[in-house]
Design goal:
Oligomer: single chain
Distance between the termini: 66 Å
Shape: elongated
Number of strands: 0
CATH architecture: Orthogonal Bundle
CATH class: Mainly Alpha
Length: about 200
């Protein structure tokens, strides 16, 4: 196999793994080339736009996959909001590479604005949109009371809270496993803080 014949999917897989783990600023094209078994200059065959294009292509590929996986988890428990949100929590906790909060706050500002905006919108629509959809369905079934715009707000807050559990340092998160903490967090989201 020649260097330029490395499958594009393999290159994007390697780039996604490195960028997800270390962030955009920490990874150089040379790092991606070496991990993929390519010569540095061969990367421009696959990503003529350089590092920003490779990052965007890899992250968009990953976001598409994450959105499909999350939707599949949510669809598996159709009609039971608590089960759907537990499935979402399980998916978030099982995907440590999906540090979307870091990507949005640290990586995207280093990209050309139009590229960063495209990735941010894709993340919001794919991941938060999936959660907003199950919240909207539950509202329509009369299970919860939530304004239409608030389904996006609560979906985004829930995703951020679950990712915070995923990355929390054990010294601060407490002795309970993250899955137990996620269940308790979902109870608060669904049942509220006020006494009954």
């Amino acid at each position: 196999m020649t260097e330029t014949s490395v499958p594009r999917e393999r290159l994007l897989e390697v780039a996604e793994r490195l960028f997800s783990k270390h962030g955009y600023a920490a990874i150089k094209l040379r790092d991606v080339a070496q991990a993929a078994g390519l010569h540095h200059s061969s990367l421009y065959h696959h990503a003529p736009g350089g590092k920003a294009q490779l990052f965007a292509d890899a992250m968009q590929r990953g976001l598409d996959r994450h959105a499909r996986e999350l939707r599949a988890r949510l669809d598996a428990d159709d009609g039971d909001l608590r089960a759907q949100l537990r499935a979402a929590a399980g998916w978030v906790l099982a995907n440590p590479a999906g540090n979307h909060a870091r990507m949005l706050t640290t990586d995207l500002p280093n990209l050309p604005p139009e590229v960063g905006e495209r990735i941010a919108v894709q993340a919001w629509r794919g991941l938060v949109g999936a959660l907003a959809g199950v919240l909207r369905d539950a509202r329509d079934r009369g299970e919860i009371v939530l304004d239409d715009g608030d389904t996006w707000l609560v979906g985004g807050a829930l995703l951020a809270a679950l990712q915070a559990l995923q990355t929390a340092d054990a010294r601060f998160a407490g002795p309970r496993p993250a899955a137990h903490q996620a269940d308790r967090l979902l109870d608060v989201f669904l049942d509220g803080l006020r006494p009954r």
